[in-house]
Amino acid sequence: MKRYVGAIDQGTTSTRFMVFDGEGRVVSVAQKEHQQIYPRPGWVEHDPAEIIARTTEVADEAIRRAGIAAAELVAVGITNQRETTIIWEKKTGKAIGNAIVWQDTRVADDVARYAAAGGQNRFREATGLPLSTYFSSLKARWLLQNVAGARERAAAGELLFGTVDSFLVWHLTGGTSGGVHVTDLTNASRTQLFNLSKLQWDPALLAAFEIPASLLPAVRSSSEIYGEGTVGALKGVPIAGILGDQQAALVGQTCFDPGEVKNTYGTGCFLLMNTGERRVPSAAGLLTTVAYQFGKSPVHFALEGSIAISGALVQWLRDNLGLIAKSTDVEALARSVEDNGGVYFVPAFSGLYAPYWKDSARGVIAGLTRFANKGHLARAALEATAYQTRDVVEAMEQDARIELKGVRVDGGMVGNELLMQFQSDILNREVVRPVVQETTALGAAYAAGLATGFYSGTEELRAKWKSDQVWKPQMASADREKLYRNWKKAVTRSFDWTED
Fold this sequence. Notes:
Oligomer: single chain
């Protein structure tokens, strides 16, 4: 009997289920989008019930397409959008409100108040994170403050809090009939409630953000058996891996040695460097976070540069401006011009993340002349992702004191060869795309496979990684530095746009 491992990839815009064989090759995949809800400017929500429904649907569909029995599925791993916050009822399993998505900026006023009382970095030493609208702490506090009766019900032990992984595991392992309430260290480290030196929930942080400890999931490693599935095609299958999406991509890219780096181009853009067992504090605007822990092996840490908007900017060109019919059309439109025509697009729709951390920034298009056309806008939109990546790379090298030789890339945008060549040019480094580009789901599958003995260890996983294409820099140094200098000028134009 052949054996396989599965992965739930619950992302910002869709949910996928993928089945992999022992070589890490994709056997089948099913994917469904879920609704993006924008009740007010700056607010971004998801319907938790829809996410659960999509998850079970794609699992059933992918397993059916693979033509395998549940007994052939050794284990399932979960990777998820991080920071997105859900609070739900123990008794019914229903969320008390929509999930507040990581991009949501409704707590900007709270960020300002907390920063005024102790600075933007008042919790950085404990958590590795600055105060920002990005993380889960203030989102959970907002739900408790603004949903009628929520704080009282939380105090009475009637509610549960979690990032999306916790919500999924609880529902998939029984829900109201014994569902397991857990998270892993990677997701816990994104809540701003978790102490990185003690590797546990921090009572002082819980008090500061007014979060009752009774809400919280148990924190486990990224690779162990948490429970068995109880629904649909997952019934009886061990749920055995949890990794936040960017950490999952790090694992899928087999970046197991200190100094190895991956960059994922998705809705946002996320560069992670494995720093090994060393927790590196950032002085350059990066995040210190947990990379992974496999079973009882030592915890590995990472430096992360988080960029809020990359692929989402292409979607914005498609949906809001109508410049392209589908996202993949952006490359042809950008190739219709020789260069950016002096146009720079700073996509600070939800403020700027690393290394600037300016919630008051907003998006700007700079350098417009009568010469500029939609091709220049498309090219500027693609180049924005590459420039932001260089911002993060320079900060990362400063913090880690390691010069990066190259970057392994993955995510939906790595099929855009114009972007990948420009990324190599502006970084002046090799950019390497792997054969298996679904590295986020693959990382979750690897974690589940390690927990159940399907994979023997990280050396076996590393041997499976293979390069598909390598881009080398071709741009003259003077041109590179002029482009980047103008980008930095455009970024400053986005600062302090909002005043409230």
